[in-house]
Design a protein that fits this description.
Length: about 325
């Protein structure tokens, strides 16, 4: 690379419904976010109960300038000279909603071109994993490799091996819905607003996780793949046409959450029996869920269990900056 190894980057993330910008620096193998600004489009997408890609793209294009200005100001104070302090500009280029991705990539490329800095395209899933390397000031985030990585987001449910050279090997994935999608769809059945994952977690508090015997799909499949669409259907049929009390809703939420957590934990155990790793990393929006964290931590047993800070689990740009600096492939 003619520009040398970047140490300070401005990163953008617009793959779904968060417009985000961050400034990150590489410090002795871990990454520190000097700023991380996330602007959610949730209010816009609540009207449609989900994300319309063209609507998301327009909202990203409208917001990104302000979000970048805020991230630069927070990191460097004087925004006017801030671009000079950067070594590169990074943005998520895939996977995600195409129109939404293009809005962020175009902005990133334009900023890089204007400042005479290189542009780094980042894979969103690699970004979720890189979030595990984000450390607060004075902290170190040295992560032992190889690691087993469980990525659980609204678009992905995957088990991967992360090698010492920071390269991924896919071990298993979902055949249909992602874990986050299952949370969102089950939340919708329970009448909760979009995005349903965090709302369902709140509703599950105090509920009886054994009240409903929801299925644990693919537990006996013998491979490391997942399937969540049957669970959603089972919840739908169990609750259809019933006028549930608040207590019953809490029980249903807790039971569905337990089913998802148990499948994730069992597949982690199965993956660990087939691989030799020095850490287990849980990443992606669903990693914010406390029941899921507990279940996967338990599956990791004696092996160090690593999960990013909650604010870096759901979509943000600091994780994109971290992936750019760490050069996760
Ligand atoms: O990683 P992310 O922010 O975006 C994608 O790349 O998809 O993940 C969003 C997903 C949504 O499905 C959301 O409902 C879920 O993560 N999620 C949660 C929680 N927080 C976010 N699911 C369960 N419990 C949570 N606390
Ligand atoms: Zn994501």
């Amino acid at each position: 690379m003619p520009f040398g190894k970047p140490k300070t980057v401005l990163a953008l993330e617009t793959s779904c419904d968060e417009t985000a910008a961050a400034v990150c620096v590489l410090e002795k193998g871990s990454v520190r976010a000097l700023s991380s600004v996330v602007s959610s489009q949730i209010d816009i997408h609540r009207l449609t109960g989900g994300v319309v890609p063209e609507v998301a793209a327009r909202a990203h294009a409208d917001a990104i300038g302000y979000i970048v200005a805020e991230a630069l100001k927070e990191a460097f104070g004087d925004e006017a000279k801030a671009m000079r302090k950067l070594d590169a500009v990074a943005a998520t280029t895939a996977p995600g909603l195409r129109p939404a991705l293009i809005a962020g990539e175009a902005a990133g490329r334009a900023l890089a071109l204007g400042a005479g800095k290189p542009f780094i395209g980042v894979n969103h899933v690699a970004g979720h994993v890189a979030a595990a390397w984000l450390a607060e000031s004075g902290e170190r985030a040295m992560r032992p490799l190889p690691a087993l990585v469980l990525i659980v987001s609204g678009g992905h449910t995957e088990l991967r091996l992360l090698s010492k050279k920071m390269a991924f090997e896919k071990l298993g994935e979902t055949a249909d819905d992602a874990a986050g999608e299952a949370f969102d769809k089950i939340a919708r059945i329970l009448g909760l607003p979009y995005p349903g994952g965090p709302e369902l977690e709140k509703m599950a508090e105090g509920g009886n996780a054994k009240a409903y015997a929801f299925p644990r799909p693919m537990l006996g499949s013998g491979d490391l793949n997942f399937s969540f669409s049957g669970l959603k259907t089972a919840v739908l049929y169990a609750l259809k046409g019933k006028d549930l009390t608040d207590g019953e809703k809490r029980d249903a939420a807790a039971s569905a959450q337990a089913a998802i957590a148990e499948v994730l934990s069992a597949k982690t155990t199965a993956a660990l029996s087939k691989t030799k790793v020095r850490a287990v990393i849980l990443a992606g929006g669903v990693a914010a869920n406390k029941a899921v964290r507990r279940a996967v931590a338990e599956a990791a047993g004696e092996i160090p269990f690593i999960v990013p800070a909650t604010k870096y689990c759901t979509d943000n740009a600091a994780m994109i900056g971290a992936a750019a600096l760490l050069r996760i492939k």
